[in-house]
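Curious: why these numbers?
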Amino acid sequence: MRIVDAQVHAWSNGESTGHHRRAPITAEVLKSEMADAGVARAVLVPPLWDPDGNAYSLRVAQEDPNRFSVMGLLPRIIDDPVACLRGWQSQPGMRGMRGMRGMRFLFNSPERLAPLREGRLDAIWTIAEQAELVVALLIPGALPLVDEIARRHPNLRLVVDHLGVPRGATGPGAFDHLPALLALAPHRNVYVKAVGVGDYALDPYPFRSLTPTLRRVYDAFGPDRILWGSDLSRLHHPYRQCVTHFCETLSWLAQHELEGIMGGNVCRLLDWP
């Protein structure tokens, strides 16, 4: 089984923030940790603290396209997001800029969420839908807005990051929002990213407390719309355990379902052969 990590921050410049590790995860560091964990490929998500933006992740992906691809950040989102996206989309080789296979929006603070609530980003979803771009959303606490976007743009493929869990949440309260997440399941264009979920548990590996929640997500979305990932820079347990948590302890997953969740689904979604 080829394991593909759906979310890793890689950077060589800038100071990391919050609960992420302080030492940069450069390409060489990442390759070494992936080898130790048994991970074959990774989708790079440029972190906000990297002043080079998408550039470093794109360079890594272009140098090793069979191992890395990128879900990029759209700069100047509040200034003129539509013009920015059109310019980005027009770059040579777009699926995009050789290595860019989608984009990610962060709506994890009131300031970042305001443009979405106010309708200032509506044109972006139309452009992304027409361009067949995959859009990942970090949007804790505002999942009904995803419902609105998915309903208005049924051909726009959306990914809810971190299963919608708020930053820093742990224990049973981390999934107080679960009904709102499961309510998105009828939209066939909505996917969920199960990223570093062990960090939400108060109990040690193999995080048995999470099993009922993961089973409810599986029952709602099915095995074809779940993407496994690590968010390596914030893991508080070994990378390998992040892999084996799904591969060895969720016994109700059939082998072909596991192969999809652990990599096949994200490769198909991003058109990454």
Remarks:
- The two ends are 15 Å apart (CA to CA).
